[in-house]
Amino acid sequence: MSDVASGLQVEWLGRVGYAEGLAIQEGALKDRSRGARGDRLLLLEHPPVVTLGRNTREENLLLSAEEFAARGVEVHSVPRGGDVTFHAPGQLVGYLLVDLEARGQPDLHRFLRGVESALIEALDGLGIGGASVPGRTGVFVAASTEGGQGPVRKIASIGFGVRRWVTFHGFALNVSLELSGFDAIVPCGLRDVEMTSVARELGIGPLGLDIRAREAVGASFRRAFA
After folding, report:
1. What's the pLDDT score for residue 20?
2. Is the separation of the CB atoms in 90 and 176 below 8 Å?
3. Which of 46, 86, 146, 182 could form a disulfide with 195 if both were Cys (CB 3.0 to 4.6 A apart)?
4. Is pLDDT above 50 for 35?
5. Is 188 a catalytic site residue?
6. Residue 41 is part of which domain span?
7. CATH number assigned to the domain comprising residue 99
């Protein structure tokens, strides 16, 4: 299913194996680079998988390869920025293929802030105050960044690659996934951060929540990248 509005095509791919997702993304990247398709946001979810970005440190993996395999969790090294993260059903993953040069904005830092802002807008629509934190990429629960009461709670991770000013990889918004999967890693290498989800922050079950989150994210990104 896809819809096109204001120059950004948003597509829901459903649950996709990680290797298959990489292949889909590579094809989409090639299409965007040669101008065969416009800017696209591919929304999907993955079976349990740990991904290692270019800046991953070995100490941030708390299990061996054999232990991950015994849990049914795949491990993949990927050409994106950032450290280690975890994906699983109930997490909304977005692969954003945007030609920054064609938009006249070849500035990856500005692009990342735009992605954070779009996610914060989507969270606001779901009833959660989101915030960015200087020096840290991603989106955090605003209430946890104020007053020093308990750990800062992170709700969305971001890690991009860029090839000839076309972006690839993207973000992961924790919606209704089981958060215990993060216990096997130090998410994004941030030892003082606690991972959270939309369901946990709202105190509600997943019924209908994943669809609401998908719609909110699609709408906010169409506006942000019109």
Report:
1. 96
2. yes
3. 182
4. yes
5. yes
6. 2-116+157-191+209-224
7. 3.30.930.10
Q: Catalytic residue among 16, 22, 43, 188, which?
A: 188
Kindly list the distances between the CA atom of residue 45 and the CA atoms of 9, 21, 61, 65, 190, in Å, as whole numbers in the listed order. Answer: 18, 9, 22, 22, 23
Q: How, if at all, do strands 91-97 and 39-45 pair?
A: antiparallel
Cβ pair 86, 187 in contact under 8 A: yes
State the Cα–Cα distance between residues 90 and 93, nearest whole angstrom. 9
Q: Give 148's pLDDT tier (boundaries 50, 70, 90).
A: low
Which of 209, 213, 179 lies closest to 197, judged by CA? 179
Q: Is 213 exposed, middle or buried (0-12, 13-18, 19+ CB in 10 A)?
A: buried
Q: Is the pLDDT of residue 108 over 60?
A: yes
Tally of domains in the chain: 1
Round to whole Å and give the CA distance between 154 and 142: 9
Tokens of 193: 């951060």
Give me the helices (H) in 80-208, please: 108-126, 198-202
